[in-house]
Amino acid sequence: MTPSLVLHIPHASLVIPPDLAADFLLTPEQLDHELLAMTDRYTDELFALPSTLATTVAFPVSRVVVDPERFTDDEREPMAQKGMGVIYTRTSSGRPLRRPPSVAQRRDLLARFYEPHHAALTTAVDRALAAHGTCLVLDGHSFPTRPLPYEDDQDPDRADICLGTDASHTPAWLRDAAAAAFEALGWSVAIDRPFAGALVPMRYCGKDLRVRALMIEVRRDLYMDERSGARGPAFDEVRERIGRALRTIAGAR
Q1: 17 with 61: CB under 8 angstroms?
Q2: How many CB atoms lie within 10 A of CB 133?
Q3: Max Cα separation, the chain?
Q4: Selection from 164, 234, 171 nearest residue 198 by Cα
């Protein structure tokens, strides 16, 4: 049976398709450094659940190619002012990343990556609603221990777990149940800090409150070496604990 839980993993991939590599202005070493900074590495493993418990929708390429969590209209996307709209033209430190795409290039990139991904995410939610009359979208991310230059929140005091909420789609009981689940595992939790918001497919956003949403961000030093990108010694333990929290959250009502 189709599960009511949808796990969305938007930023785990390191893949840059070979035919797009020439679009970037960085040297290979500089690009590797940017991927280390911007990729939510291993979140596809940390937020993994069996298909009987969750439908997983993971973006197949790096966010530096296309970011599936941005609005396609730069007028609606606040990060576009920093050159980090749906198609990034600036790095996390503000240096040029790629040449601004032409109208045709932009259209092609969105049609190739963004639109199929969001169609898959919407279909997953459709099926959950049809089967259960409700759907919970959990958006799995990680964040660096130290703020990157592009981030609005530069406070160095960062909790272990950040929970992002949506005013319409994150009821208080869901937020509180998630916070309690992670705190019971010994982790500190912050709400909407350093990152806020929770993704809801546009078909349902602000329109259908049967769709509930929560963003979960894990501080990277808990599970990886942020200088090398390698898994840390506690990786398996952190993955197991996150799995326990996800099951608890999914069962909350």
Answers
A1: yes
A2: 9
A3: 50
A4: 164
